[in-house]
Design a protein that fits this description.
It is built from 20 helices and no strands. The protein has about 450 residues and is an all-alpha fold. Helix 14 (about 280-295) runs antiparallel to helix 15 (about 300-310).
Length: about 450
């Protein structure tokens, strides 16, 4: 008899992706009143569905509930919201030929990432060394409250890292029923494709179809500088964190310009996901508790108070996680804080940060574009667009602040290791802002209409 196990596994994998996308479709439909392209809606649904599923797992484990396959089954019906609150789609139109070429170039980058996902050795380093082991631990016990985290012997590194992505991949393993690594690799490749579509939608809102397509293609190829075989697959949690931050801040900007509760809701979901991706995400969401209200003052005191509510769920969950991990085995490899801030080291740290960001193998081509846009006009603090640049600055400030309070030798090593991560986290925000600035200086075809209903 033929062996159908491989086919069944693939079907279960597709069903898992469908469950995540269904969940995200409900969230996206509930969280936007503007017209969306169909590809953008599908991409947002997949990305937010994956993130929300992981967030629900973390939240349940924090309150002591054991998770399992039942969580995926429970969140999937959220897609029914999309049938009730139907999204508005952009009317179909034939894109210009130049836009088709741009899309083809972007698809080339997605093809390279998909090819890398098909290789057995593309998830290694951090991804295999401790992220995957966390996934296996959650699968085995149904919770992070187990001896792998709290026992006397710690079998994996960085036990205190937030668990959104390992929880999502634990859900994947429960559903697919295999311990092999290919579902994780293909999910990361699909997330990269979804991120490209999300970026294209953000750019298309202000730019013409052709320019938006080529800028998306340019951005999609930048990560290949990390590794021609798909360096983002090894990042495992950093690229999803960057995209959740991008969605959260862009939707926060839309809320600021329209005061639409739906945009605020979508921003809140994305920031909540970001808070549980990595420690850096939690620190960024904590900064948003200050940044969002300050920017909200542009619309008055009531708007400033409302802006505080957007990152609140992510901030509270980050505090809960910080409290829960106190019972974990201490991480011997974590940097030890010094007695205080060493102010004399700040100039050296800033110099190293700038140098690492412009090195040839660290997304440097993107800085040529952003540098050109800086010459146009940096947004004034009272402009809503300043939220994007302020958020990017907050991410960089968080890194610099950490490096000033740890021993010098550890700081130098951390800066070298984290250079691509820094760029991955805040560069998308600067890229979107710089692209939007193009709309003010270049003649463009008619941009996609913003439809409010």
């Amino acid at each position: 008899m033929p062996d159908w196990s491989g086919v069944v596994t693939c079907l279960r994998f597709l069903l898992t992706l469908l469950a995540w996308t269904s969940c995200g479709a409900g969230i996206t439909a509930l969280g936007t009143r503007r017209a969306l392209g169909r590809a953008e809606f599908l991409a947002l649904s997949f990305a937010l569905g994956l993130g929300f599923a992981g967030f629900v797992h973390v939240a349940l484990m924090l309150v002591g509930v054991r998770v399992g396959l039942w969580v995926a089954i429970a969140v999937a019906p959220l897609g029914l919201i999309a049938l009730r609150v139907r999204p508005v789609f952009v009317p179909s139109a034939r894109p210009p030929l130049l836009a088709w070429f741009g899309h083809a170039v972007a698809l080339g980058a997605i093809g390279v990432m998909s090819w890398a996902a098909s290789l057995n050795d593309t998830v290694a380093g951090d991804g295999e060394e401790f992220w995957t082991l966390k996934t296996k631990s959650i699968v085995r016990f149904g919770t992070f409250r187990n001896p792998d985290f709290t026992g006397g012997v710690r079998p994996h590194r960085h036990s205190g890292y937030p668990l959104l992505m390992p929880s999502a991949y634990a859900s994947l393993r429960w559903t697919v029923g295999t311990a092999e690594g290919w579902p994780v690799r293909y999910t990361l490749a699909l997330f990269f494709a979804a991120a490209s579509a999300i970026l294209a939608g953000i750019l298309r809102e202000r730019l013409g179809a052709s320019l938006a397509a080529w800028l998306t293609a340019f951005f999609a190829w930048l990560p290949m500088l990390l590794s021609p075989r798909g360096g983002l697959l090894n990042a495992y949690s950093d690229f999803p964190l960057a995209i959740f931050i991008l969605i959260g801040v862009v939707e926060g900007f839309r809320w600021l310009t329209t005061l639409s509760p739906r945009s605020g809701f979508l921003s809140a979901v994305a920031l909540a996901c970001a808070s549980q991706c990595k420690d850096e995400g939690g620190a960024f969401v904590s900064a948003c508790m200050i940044l969002f209200p300050l920017t909200g003052l542009l619309r008055g005191k009531r708007a400033a108070f409302a802006a505080t509510l957007i990152p609140l769920a992510g901030f509270v969950t980050f505090l809960a996680w910080t409290w829960a991990k106190r019972s974990f085995v201490p991480d011997r490899e974590a940097a030890t804080a010094s007695a205080g801030i060493e102010w004399s080291r700040i100039p050296r740290i800033l110099y190293n940060v700038v140098w690492l960001m412009v090195k040839a193998n660290k997304w440097s081509l993107g800085w040529l574009f952003v540098g050109g846009m800086l010459a146009l006009r940096f947004p004034k603090p009272r402009e809503p667009e300043s939220l994007l640049t302020s958020a990017a600055g907050a991410i960089l400030l968080i890194y610099v602040a950490v490096w000033t309070v740890i021993p010098a030798a550890e700081a130098d090593e951390a800066m070298g290791c984290n250079a691509p991560r820094i760029l991955m986290h805040f560069f998308p925000l600067l890229f979107v802002w710089a692209s939007w600035r193009l709309a003010t200086v270049l003649p463009q075809e008619t941009p996609r209409p913003r439809i409010e209903h």
